[in-house]
């Protein structure tokens, strides 16, 4: 049954949206953003990249397929708050184990329903992502000034290092599926389960590492490659991860990064990063792969981007040789991928594991596998000649 209890969404510019309480009751603060996917709400909610954000779904009807344990991308819902227009009154799917409202309440996620999400989307598109708060239950009774002051007292996304919140605390392994061809050290900055599974399916033992790992500890594992995952927060606040990557790149370790891992590669190469007005979030983002000329429809969730020259080959400001922008957004020309020409390293800004989303970019895991096999081939050939 849909709640009739009142709730309000308050933006830092003073705009207010009255609606109904959804999920847990209380107060939550975060950065208001919108996600444009028509499907995949469970994958969105359990994606650690959304930590610290109040996520609004632009699709009007949410919750009709319920939730299950199979499609979760992590152990819990990470969004700071949830905004929908019309929550489903019933769950109708043979895979459903619970309703979405059940999981929101279990994980303590304060939400709101029944607002004009089209108007909110247009507002955020015009003014950009901003701090916000959802107030329900006893918190709804606060006066408007108190609620607005609470929102304006919340943390800005810029400057936040959230990988310490979402990363695993202990190292663990996902074993290779089928024939083993090597191992990959994955720095967990907010990694999704699907990413680990796709790496394992390509024959890699996947060593998942906490974000506090040192270069010496990575070298002790003797991995065949390094992978930086997606994750929340400001890349400028993750200089320890940049320094770690620089040290391991200088040691010749092959590298692949996605989303946050793309931003950190950019910074490791000496480029800057900047905050986008309202980010790219959803499963319908068009990207051009300049290597193949192919257009991919991609799954994305990022509020920051790499500031690098879009055209031609340039020298890395940090001394890592030649670099080129390999992928660009067809919506706004944002850098969506980087390729190093003198190192075995590349990255993309989007989520090729397609959870949820299209499978256009799945080839990137194969490209990573082929790169690692190519680096191993000379050693194998030398052994054959001895």
From TrEMBL:
Region of interest (CPSase), residue spans: 1-180
Domain Carbamoyl-phosphate synthase small subunit N-terminal as annotated: residue spans: 5-135
Pathway the protein contributes to: Amino-acid biosynthesis; L-arginine biosynthesis; carbamoyl phosphate from bicarbonate: step 1/1; Pyrimidine metabolism; UMP biosynthesis via de novo pathway; (S)-dihydroorotate from bicarbonate: step 1/3
Record PROSITE patterns: GATASE_TYPE_1
SUPFAM superfamilies: Carbamoyl phosphate synthetase, small subunit N-terminal domain, Class I glutamine amidotransferase-like
Record's subunit section: Composed of two chains; the small (or glutamine) chain promotes the hydrolysis of glutamine to ammonia, which is used by the large (or ammonia) chain to synthesize carbamoyl phosphate. Tetramer of heterodimers (alpha,beta)4.
Similarity field: Belongs to the CarA family.
Name the UniProt record assigns to this protein: Carbamoyl phosphate synthase small chain
Species: Herbiconiux moechotypicola
Gene name in the database record: carA
């Amino acid at each position: 049954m849909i709640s009739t209890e009142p709730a309000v969404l308050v933006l830092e510019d003073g705009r207010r949206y009255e609606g109904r309480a959804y999920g847990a009751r209380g107060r939550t603060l975060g950065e208001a953003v919108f996600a444009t996917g028509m499907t995949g709400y469970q994958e969105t909610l359990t994606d650690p990249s959304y930590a610290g954000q109040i996520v609004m779904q632009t699709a009007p009807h949410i919750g009709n397929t319920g939730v299950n344990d199979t499609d979760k991308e992590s152990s819990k819902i990470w969004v700071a708050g949830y905004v929908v227009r019309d929550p489903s009154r019933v769950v109708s799917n043979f895979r459903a184990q619970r309703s979405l409202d059940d999981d929101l309440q279990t994980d303590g996620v304060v939400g709101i329903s029944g607002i004009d999400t089209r108007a909110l989307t247009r507002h955020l598109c015009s003014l950009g992502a901003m701090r916000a708060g959802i107030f329900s239950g006893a918190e709804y009774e606060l006066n408007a000034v108190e609620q607005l002051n609470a929102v304006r007292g919340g943390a800005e996304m810029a400057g936040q290092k959230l990988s310490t919140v979402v990363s695993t605390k202990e190292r663990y392994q996902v074993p290779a599926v089928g024939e083993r061809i090597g191992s990959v050290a994955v720095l967990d900055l907010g990694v999704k389960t699907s990413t680990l599974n796709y790496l394992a399916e390509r024959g890699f033992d996947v060593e998942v590492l906490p974000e506090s790992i040192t270069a010496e500890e990575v070298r002790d594992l003797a991995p065949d490659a390094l992978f930086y995952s997606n994750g929340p927060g400001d890349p400028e606040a993750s200089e320890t991860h940049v320094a770690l990557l620089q040290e391991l790149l200088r040691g010749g370790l092959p590298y692949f990064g996605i989303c946050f891992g793309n931003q950190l590669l950019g910074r490791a190469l000496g480029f800057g990063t900047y905050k986008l007005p309202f980010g790219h979030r959803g499963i319908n983002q068009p990207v051009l792969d300049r290597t193949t000329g192919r257009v991919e429809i991609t799954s994305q969730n990022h509020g920051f981007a790499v500031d690098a020259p879009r055209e031609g080959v340039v020298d890395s400001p940090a001394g890592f040789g030649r670099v080129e922008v390999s992928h660009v957004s067809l919506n706004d020309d944002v850098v969506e991928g980087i390729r190093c020409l003198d190192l075995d390293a590349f990255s993309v800004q989007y989520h090729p594991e397609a959870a949820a989303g299209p499978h256009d970019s799945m080839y990137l895991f194969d490209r990573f596998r082929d790169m690692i096999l190519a680096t191993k081939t000379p050693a194998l050939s030398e052994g054959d000649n001895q």
